[in-house]
Structures are given as C-alpha cells and as structure tokens.
Amino acid sequence: MAYRFEFRPYCRPFRQPLKTHHGLWQQREGIILKLTDDRGRVGFGEVAPLPWFGSETQAQALAFCQDMPPQLATDKAFSILPTLPACQFGLEVAVSNLTRRCRRPELAPAHCSALLPTGEAALSAWAPLWSAGYRTFKWKIGVAPVAIELAWLSQLMRQLPLGARLRLDANGGLDELTAHHWLSYCDRGGGRIEFIEQPLPPGDFAALVKLSQRYQTPIALDESVTTLDQLKMHCFRGWQGIYVIKAAILGPPSRLIQFCTDYPIDIVVSSVFETDIGRQTLIDLAAELATLLPHYPRRSLGLGTQRWLPCDGLDDPDWEALWQRL
Ligand SMILES: O=C(O)CCC(=O)C1=CC=C[C@@H](O)[C@@H]1C(=O)O
Ligand SMILES: [Mg+2]
Fold it and tell me: How many Å apart are CA 205 and CA 184, to the nearest integer?
C-alpha cells in the first residue's frame, strides 16, 4: 500500500499580534499535509513550527516536504530526523487521521484557557471572554516594569469574578529577584493564580527548583521542555511542578503518550496557534492524557482564543474546504 503525499504552506496574520518577552509575533506560518491511501481515504496533518521555542523553521519544514516522494510506501516507518519535531508531529497526525471516524466535539470554553492581550489591554478584554464561558485566563508578564504589571494585575484581580483563574506567563523573561516579587504577590492572591509559567530562563533550573520549593503558587515549565528529550531530562532531574506541553513541536504524539504512561507528570496541553487540524489533535491528546494521569487536576487546555482574522477560515472544521482555500 502507498500514500499519495501532498502539502500546502499557509501564512496568516493574527487578529492581533502577540507581544511576549520573545518579541512581537504577527503571523502564523505552517504547512498542511494531505495523505491519500489506496482506498481513497484522506488524512490531514499540520506542521506548525515555532523556531524560537527550538523547533525547525518554516523553511526547514518546507525543504523536508519538498524532499518527500509523492508516493510514500506504507510498509516503511517514516524516519524523520528528531531535528524536525513539527514535521514528525504533522506526519503522524496525517496517518492517524486516515482512519479518523469523527471529530471530537469542540471543547467547552470552560475547559480552555483564553489568552488575554498583553499589558493594560487585558483589563478591557476579559469580560466578553467570561461571557463566552471562559473561566481560565492567561496573561503575559515580563514585558513592562514589574511595578506597573503588578498594578495592572491588582486591577485585573479586583475586576475578575470569583471563579476566574489566572495563568501568568513570563516566557523566561524575569530575573530571580523579580520572580520572587511575582511569586510572593501570587501567594497572597488566595489561590486565584493557577500557576506562573516559565518565570526564569530555561538555563536556571536550580533557581526554578528553589522558587518552586519556596512559594505555594505552582510553577510551570514551558520553554524548558520544548522537546521530548528536555521533558524527560527535567522529569528525571526531579521537577515536581507543571509541564506545559506544546505537542505540535514535540515530535510524534505517540511518543509523548508513551512517556506520560511510564512517567505520570502534571501537564497542561498548550497550543502553538495551529489551525483546526492541529487543534483537534491537541483536544484528542488532552483527553487521552487526562485518562492516563487521573491523580492530577484536570487543567484547561492552553488553546488560547483563536487568533486568526475572522475572514480567514483556518478554524474551518471542514478540512477539505480548509485545504482548498490554501
Ligand atoms: O498556552 C496557552 O494558553 C496558549 C498558547 C501560548 O500561550 C503560547 C503559544 C505559542 C507561543 C508562546 O508565546 C505562548 C506561550 O509561551 O505559551
Ligand atoms: Mg508559555
């Protein structure tokens, strides 16, 4: 049996640029893969690189796709270099979608986290998302002076209804002293801060462990665990906190499932702002991981809010229509 292999790159502007400690991210570029088997079954996959998180670049992913033969023998396992984790993810997803029978129902907003705009704009952005059913909000920090961001956070906490929970994501942009400021504030927040994500750069593991032992507020690793090997290393080095899993850049989903089966860890599945094709895989993955890790709290998926321009249709659940639009 053989698969016909096709691919189409995409590039779409975000509804509003994402400002983080890494800089300003204005558009998502990626590649949609399409496999067709001898029985005419079709499987779509998605390659969504995030090079500043350690994945391959769009150009490297495109070169990989251009080097792939138009017919793939199914009896040969795809050997894709570990330096191309987004391509590994995309191809495994395309193969599994060949036999996908139905779409998992869309996740209720109460089970997703909504990414608020960075800075003071968050104060006027949360209410419509609360009305839409979101109860977990994520806010980027480490972009303005700490005193100013703490003042905004105090306002935000006063405004947010009880029942709302907040995730703070520094993208590794704080120094140790500032991280102490943030964590001592959070510890006084009455548990409404679910966790602080990557307060220090990935290289400061010993300092991250010290912070996690000093404060009540949980700490999540994100940029520290962007590859499966880094995830394993931090687990084996004894990280007891949360792991933010950006599955679309972590390689084959089956390997992540296998690891979490052998080493139960506290995870949050996080988007890299893929299209609906990648997003469905994250929803499936989160559901499967939740059954594997029952003794950890069920955490909302970090899907953010769909960040595309409304006219774009990359959220289209009809993947053939999405493909035709590219
Ligand atoms: O995790 C989420 O809630 C949404 C995804 C998200 O926040 C991110 C996706 C991609 C790049 C990052 O700047 C950012 C993150 O740091 O987690
Ligand atoms: Mg993050």
Answer: 19
Instruction: Tell me the C-alpha distance between 96 and 92, whole Å.
Output: 6
CATH architecture of 109-292: Alpha-Beta Barrel (3.20)
Angle between helices 276-292 and 85-98 (to 10 degrees): 90
Are 2-103+318-325 and 109-292 in the same CATH fold? no
Q: Where are the domains of the chain?
A: 2-103+318-325, 109-292
Q: Are 237 and 205 in contact (CB under 8 A)?
A: yes
Cα gap 199→201, rounded to integer Å: 7
pLDDT in tens, 106-136: 788 889 999 999 999 999 999 999 999 999 9
Amino acid found at 122: A
pLDDT digits (tens, 9 = 90+) for 92-108: 999 999 988 777 777 88
Query: 274 in ligand 1 pocket by Cβ < 6 Å?
Result: no
> What's the pTM?
0.95
**Beta carbons within 8 Å of 213's beta carbon, 6+ residues apart:** none
CA 132 – CA 172 distance, rounded (Å): 30
Residue nearest to atom 8 of ligand 1 (CA): 272
Gap from CA of 53 to ligand 2 centroid (Å): 10
Q: Does domain 2-103+318-325 have CATH number 3.40.50.2300?
A: no
Ligand 1: residue whose CA is nearest its atom 13:
20
